[in-house]
Amino acid sequence: MMIRHFLGFKRQKVPIFRHFRQLGTVIPPKFLESMSLNHPPDNSSTYTSLKHAISSFFHLVRRRAHRPPPTFKFGRILASLTRMKHHSTVVSLWQQMDLLGIPHDFYTYNIFLNSLCRLNHLGSALSVLARMWKLGLDPSAVTFSILIRGLCREEGKTLQGVNFFHDMVGRGYEDGILTYSIVMDGLCGMENTSLAVELVEKLEKRGWQVHVEVYDTISKGLSAEGKITLALRLFEEMVERGCGMEVLTYNILIGGLCRVGKIAQAMRLIGEMVKKGCEPDMGTSIAILFGVCKSGELHELLRLLDELAARNLMPDVHTFGVVIDSLCKEGKGSEADRLLEAMIGRGLEPNAFAYNSLMDWHCLHSQLDEAQKVFNAMIAKGCAPGVHSYNILIDGYCKRRKVDKACGLLVEMSRKDLIPSTHTYTTLIEGLFQVGRPQDAAELFKKMCSPGQLPGLTTYSVLLDGLLKYGQLHHALKLFNAMQKGKLGPPIELYGVFINSLCDFGMLEVAKGLFSILFVIGIRRNIYVYNIMIGGLLRRGLSKEAYVLFRIMEEDGCVPNGILYNAMIQGFLRTGNTEAAVDLIHEMVGRGFPADSTTVSLLLDLVAKDEMIRILMCVSKQDGNAK
C-alpha cells in the first residue's frame, strides 16, 4: 500500500482538471481547433507536424457523431505529438478526449503521464495514477517506469523515486533494466552511489540479474566521486559473476584511474581488456587523455602519447579537439594549452575547433594577449580563422572595453571577404555604447542593415537600450516606429524589451503609453509584458496602480505567476500597505506559489518593528471568518 499512501489516495473524485488549469497546462480548445482548419485529415499512424496531428485529432472528433473511432487512433496522434515533444498539446488534447467522453486505455494514460512528467507536473501525474486505481485500471510496469523517471529527474525527489521503485517490485512488477537503470542513474547523479550499491545488492538477493549497463552507471558515479578503488572492486565482482564486460565499462575505469594519477594501472587495464578480446576504441583514448590532463600529471603526456601510438590508439585531430574543448569548459585552460602543444609536437595540426576553444577560454579569463597569440598561431599554422574565431576575439575585446581593437578585427574580416554575422555587429554595437560612442553605434547599425542583413531581437534590444541610456528617446522611438511599419512588425518580446528600458531610464509615462497601444493595435499582451510593466510601476513605488494592472491581466487571459505575486506583495510591504500584502499572501498560497527569499526577508523586517503582530492578527481573523 506504499504507493497509495504516497499519493494520499482516497476513494473520492479526483479534481484533476481544476488542478491542471491552475498549472496553466491547458491550451484553449478553440485555438487548437483553429489550427486544424483547411488542413486535410490523414489516416496514417505518423504525423509530420503539429498542425497535421491536431487536424487529424479534430477530424476524428467530428466523426464521433456518425461512427465513434477507436481509442487507439487517438493514441497514435498523442504518441506522434510526444515524439515531436509537444507535451503541453498532448495534455490539452487528452483532456479534450476526457471532456468529450472518449474512453482512454493504458496506452493513452501512459502517454499522458509521460507528458505531465516531462512538464515537471509530478503532482498531476500522481493524481492520474490515483484515478487509474479508482477506475479499476491496474497500472503496468511501463506506467511505474514513467513516474519513477519523472521523480528521479526532478531535483530533490530521487529518494521518493527509489521508494516508489521498491513498492513496484514488491507488487511483482519487474520491468528489468529500463526501470532500475533510471533509478541508478538518479542516485549516481545526486552523488549517492553508496545507496545505489545497496539497491543492487537487494535486487540480487531477490534473484534479479543486474545488467552490465547498471554496473556501468554505478562505476561512472564512483569514478566521478574519486572512489576508484570501490569501482575496481565492483568490476572484479562483475567478472567473478561472469558478467560480460564491454568497452564502455573499461573506458569508465581507465578514465577514473587516470584522473587520480594511476596512469600505469590504467595502461595495464588496457592490456587486460585486449587479452579478453575487448578491443579499445577512440573512447579509450579520450578517457586516457582527459583523465591525465585532469589529474595534472602532464609530465607523463608525451610518454603516454608514444604508448598510445604503439598500441594503435593515437587520437586523431577531432579527438584532440574534443578533449581540449572539454578541458576548457571545465576551467582547465592551462592543461588544454599543454595538450595543444603536445598535439603539435606529434605532428598533428589542430583544427579551428581546438583553437577556438582555447581562445574562448583565454577571453573568458581576461587573458586577451594569450587569446591573440592563439589566434596568430592559428593563422601561422595555416588554419584559416572563420567568422566564429573573429567573434570570440571581438567579444573578448569589447568586454574589456578595447573597442578600437575589436573594430580593427571587423575591418580585417572585410579584407578577407568574411561576412560578419548578426552576433558580430550586435557585440560591437553594445561595445560602442559601453564606451560612450552612441553615434558610432548607430552608424554601425546602418552599415549592418545596408547589405540587407536582418538584425535580430538581441540587436534591436541592445540598440534601443543604448539610445535610451544616452537620452536619445526621439531616435529610439523613430527606430521603433520604423520596425512597426515593417512587414512583420516587432515581436511582443521586443515591445517588452523597449518598455523595460523606458522604465529603467525613468520614462514611465512613455512606457505606459506604449503598453496601452498594444491593446489598440491588436497585439495580445502576454505575462512577460505584464511582468515588465507592473515591475516598472512597483520600482517607482506605485503599488496601487500596479495592483490595478495586476487584476486587469487576469481578465486579459494572463494568470499571474509566483514571481508576480511576490513582486506585488513586496511592493505593498515596501509602501506600508500590510493588509493588502496579507490578502495577496493568502491568495498566492492558495494558488500553490511559495514566498521567495525577498518576501520572507521583508516579513522578518516587520517582526523587528512589531508590525508582524498586526499582520498575524489579520491572518488569524481571516482564518476565523473562513471557518
UniProtKB/TrEMBL annotation:
The lineage of its organism: Eukaryota, Viridiplantae, Streptophyta, Embryophyta, Tracheophyta. The keyword Secreted does not apply. Belongs to the PPR family. P subfamily. PPR repeats lie at residues 105-139, 140-175, 176-210, 211-245, 246-280, 316-350, 351-385, 386-420, 421-455, 456-490, 526-560, 561-595. It holds the Pfam family PPR_2. This is Pentacotripeptide-repeat region of PRORP domain-containing protein. It comes from Turnera subulata. It comes from the Eukaryota. Keywords: Repeat.
